[in-house]
Design goal:
The protein has 14 helices and 15 strands. The chain has an eleven-stranded mixed β-sheet, with helices on both faces. Strands 4-5 form a two-stranded antiparallel ribbon. Strands 12-13 form a two-stranded antiparallel ribbon. Among the domains are: 4-238 and 251-259 and 457-473, Amidase signature (AS) enzymes (Alpha-Beta Complex); 306-374, no CATH class. By secondary structure, it is α/β, with parallel strands linked by helices. The chain is globular, with a radius of gyration of 21 Å. The protein starts with 8 loop residues before the first helix and ends in an 11-residue tail after the last helix.
């Protein structure tokens, strides 16, 4: 039988409701594991254990009375540091916000609590959620439980590390540049980036920001694929204002077996070389799917130019995050963009041009984005899903030197810019598409490798259904050694 701490949230919720284990008992089990393993991982960086224990006791009392709060009744879980949780700090890793204590919960947190969860802590992030590593001056560095010398990813890196090590039952993350997807891939867990706009980001912001940012979404990470559908069903839906006028009803999957799926497959791209280990695992999956009767097409693509789609994503991404710049940083970006040679097409050049672009330029890029979105919709008339890498390779070693755009990673024995792999973040993300990451294998070093399962807009449940079938028939959760 799977160890208690490595069971999925769905399984744990069933254990709690059937009283095979008590709510307080399960909470104490996870707390003991946090005390044992978190000092070396640094995944969970803030807790409110007294409040969690009171809630767990109340959950036990409710069950004795025959009351069930919801599908997560009594389940201990954590959330990404960037969500507001009453009484806990929300800093996004920014030192000037280290004393910023939330006075209310994010809407997604309230919904998880309303479903019965016991939220006992928060997990680490990079500065401003802007890295594929998770380190900051307030909380320090989070490590990957598969190899402490390596990153767990970012920005939901603490989330994925805590799940993989069996320190929590479920997690809530966020994603604008693969911040759910790459940590799931690096740590060997499941993550789902929802269709843009279906999960309210209310309370997932620094300060009192009310507007919804472009591209960015909130979504779940878990130790099992069924947990993604469960958590998404709780988190998704309009806020109290939008809810006056619309309801969310995601289409149910039509497919029951792997043989029912028609999938497109993409192993590499001109703008992001992919390590052979990742390509081999994806090809092995494709071969397995074909043997199961699925239709796999490695030539099918949306009718868009991939390199242009990547450049467009960088423009929209950096424009979306430019509001975080101080006046001095914005002025510097303007000056640097103006001084750049016209032929400079580096990531830095793209970033600074986007950071300082005119709104008229953004409107032009947005129009281009929506034309590409329609091209994706045409592809999904013939194919159910689009399979591709989540990142260029397995989890790389910690590297905090300089700026992100200055760093490199090893791919096929050579050093390449770490920002190249943003291609795999943006090729689907910029166009509102949902994507699930599921573990499918390991690198020669024994590090997890996942597949990115992208679906049509609002096809979230079809992505997750495919991941559920893979978990059942191809590869389930594998725990890192040493965390038994």
């Amino acid at each position: 039988m799977t160890a208690l701490h490595f069971r999925s949230a769905t399984e744990l919720a069933g254990d709690l409701k059937s009283k095979r284990i008590g709510c307080r008992e399960l909470l104490e089990h996870f707390i003991a594991r946090v005390e044992r393993f978190n000092p070396s991982l640094n995944a969970i960086i803030a807790t409110d254990l007294p409040a969690a224990r009171l809630r767990a006791d109340a959950a036990d009392a409710a069950l004795r009375r025959g009351e069930v709060w919801g599908p997560l009744h009594g389940l201990p879980m954590t959330v990404k540091e960037s969500y507001d949780v009453t009484g806990l700090p929300t800093t996004w890793g920014v030192p000037q916000f280290k004393d910023n204590i939330a006075r209310r919960n994010a809407l997604a947190v309230d919904r998880l609590l309303g479903a019965g969860a016991v939220v006992f802590g928060k997990t680490n992030v990079p500065l401003m959620l802007a890295d594929w590593q998770s380190f900051n001056a307030i909380y320090g560095t989070t490590s990957n439980p598969w190899d402490l010398s390596r990153t767990p990813g970012g920005s939901s890196g603490g989330s994925a590390a805590a799940l993989a090590a069996g320190l929590t039952g479920l997690e809530a993350g966020s994603d604008i540049g693969s911040s759910i997807r790459n940590p799931a891939h690096y740590c060997g867990v499941w993550g789902h980036k929802p269709t843009y706009g279906i999960v309210s980001p209310k309370g997932h912001a620094l300060g009192e920001r009310a507007a919804t940012g472009d591209i960015s979404v909130c979504g779940p990470l878990a130790r099992g694929s069924a947990d993604l559908a469960l958590a998404l069903g709780i988190m998704a839906g309009p806020d109290e204002i939008d809810g006056e006028g619309w309801r969310l009803e995601l289409p149910k999957p039509k497919q029951e077996r792997l043989a029912d799926f028609k999938v497109a497959l993409m192993l590499e791209a001109a703008d992001s070389e992919v390590d052979r280990a990742v390509q081999d695992q994806l090809q092995a999956l494709a071969d397995f799917l074909a043997k199961r009767g699925a239709r796999v097409d490695d030539k099918a693509r949306p009718s868009i130019e991939a390199r242009r789609a990547h450049a467009l994503y960088i423009q929209l991404l950096r424009a979306a995050t430019s509001g975080r710049l101080s006046d001095a940083e914005f002025a510097a970006a303007q000056a640097q963009a103006k001084a750049l040679p016209a032929e400079d097409d580096s990531y830095f050049a793209r970033m600074q041009r986007a950071n300082s672009m005119h709104h008229r330029d953004w409107l032009r890029f947005n129009e281009e984005r929506h034309r590409m979105r329609l091209a994706w919709a045409e592809l999904y008339r013939d194919y159910d899903l689009f399979l591709c890498p989540a990142a260029a390779g397995a989890a790389p070693p910690h590297d905090h030197a300089g700026e992100r755009w200055q760093r490199t990673i090893a791919v096929n024995g050579k050093r390449v810019p770490t920002t190249d792999q943003l291609f795999w973040a943006g090729f689907t993300c910029a166009f509102y598409l949902p994507a699930t990451v599921a573990p499918i294998g390991a690198s020669p070093e024994g590090l997890p490798i996942g597949v990115q399962i992208a679906g049509p807009q609002y096809g979230d449940l079809t992505c997750i259904r495919f991941a559920e079938l893979l978990e059942r028939e191809y590869r389930g959760f594998v725990a890192p050694k040493g965390y038994e």
